[in-house]
UniProtKB/TrEMBL annotation:
Organism: Polystyrenella longa
SUPFAM superfamilies named among the record's database cross-references: NAD(P)-binding Rossmann-fold domains (SSF51735)
Family the UniProt entry places it in: Belongs to the short-chain dehydrogenases/reductases (SDR) family.
Recorded name of the encoding gene: fabL
Keywords, in A-Z order: Oxidoreductase
Name of a matching Pfam family: adh_short_C2
Gene3D superfamilies assigned to the protein according to its UniProt record, in alphabetical order: NAD(P)-binding Rossmann-like Domain (3.40.50.720)
EC number(s) reported in the record: 1.3.1.104
Residues annotated as signal peptide: none
EC main group: oxidoreductase
GO molecular function: enoyl-[acyl-carrier-protein] reductase (NADPH) activity
Descriptive protein name: Enoyl-[acyl-carrier-protein] reductase [NADPH] FabL
Length: 253
């Protein structure tokens, strides 16, 4: 059993979906949790109450991961009021499903700012605390199959996820002596966000056909279990890797 007692974990975009499942999973393992949200305050507070009911400490911070100043202010709060950070899960991401040929400069910058640059800014600000973690600091970020395959209306997001995987490897080169940086590439999980993807019904049907897990479908908890592993000492020798969790869907046509 993974025991994270005494650890402090920040999960960005944790008010719903995979972020919410991850925050709960880390709390169940004993970690105290910093819940981050941008707009979904009610959902964030509901999550905080659930974590408190486990006997964990919880902090709720509103910060937009697309804004460098918000990230720095959040990290200043953590340094001044908590003084510890052992785990950083960079989960917050943006959608914006549209054809590439209808994309504008602002759409590109939004996708890159939230999906890629936020990881750099978070690690930069959090590194002093992560490097002081007993054992090793842990950084995990979330990618998707759009990083390596073409999906309808997903060009900017997929491009940003490909960039994210590369950035994570290069971050490992810079901070890997003290911190583990890894990526979880999640298959299609039904969340508020993925239900908005154009042709999502067809994509979910194809996922169920291609999965090699019988009637079992990929859920947010399955992704959270993998993140939990990468946040634990069991993953100390895993560095700069992208770990796919999709029930085998992407290994065959």
């Amino acid at each position: 059993m993974i025991d994270l007692t005494g650890k402090i974990a920040l999960v960005t975009g944790s008010s719903r979906g995979i972020g919410r499942a991850t925050a709960l999973k880390l709390a169940q393992a004993g970690a105290d949790i910093i819940v981050n949200y941008a707009t979904s305050q009610a959902a964030a507070m509901e999550l905080a109450q659930e974590i408190l009911s486990m006997g964990r400490q919880v902090y709720v911070i509103k910060a937009d991961m697309g804004e460098e100043d918000d990230i720095d202010c959040m990290m200043d709060f953590i340094k001044e009021n908590i003084g510890q950070l052992d785990i950083l899960v960079s989960n917050a991401a943006t959608g914006g499903f549209r054809p590439l040929l209808k994309s504008k400069r602002a759409h590109f910058h939004t996708a890159m700012d939230i999906n890629v640059l936020s990881l750099i800014f978070l690690v930069r600000a959090a590194y002093p605390l992560l490097a002081q973690s007993q054992g090793r600091g842990k950084v995990v970020t979330i990618s998707s199959h759009g990083s390596h395959m073409a999906l309808p209306m997903y060009g900017l997001i997929g491009g940003s996820k490909a960039a994210l995987e590369s950035v994570a490897r290069h971050l490992t080169l810079e901070v890997g002596d003290h911190v583990n940086v890894n990526v979880v590439k999640a298959g299609l999980v039904e969340t508020d966000s993925t239900r908005k993807i154009p042709f999502s019904d067809r994509m979910f049907a194809e996922r169920d056909t291609k999965s090699m897990m019988g009637q079992r479908v990929l859920e947010a908890d399955d992704v959270a279990n993998t993140i939990l592993f990468l946040c634990s000492p069991l993953s100390d020798l895993i560095q700069g890797e992208t770990l796919t969790v999709d029930g085998g869907s992407a290994i065959h046509v």
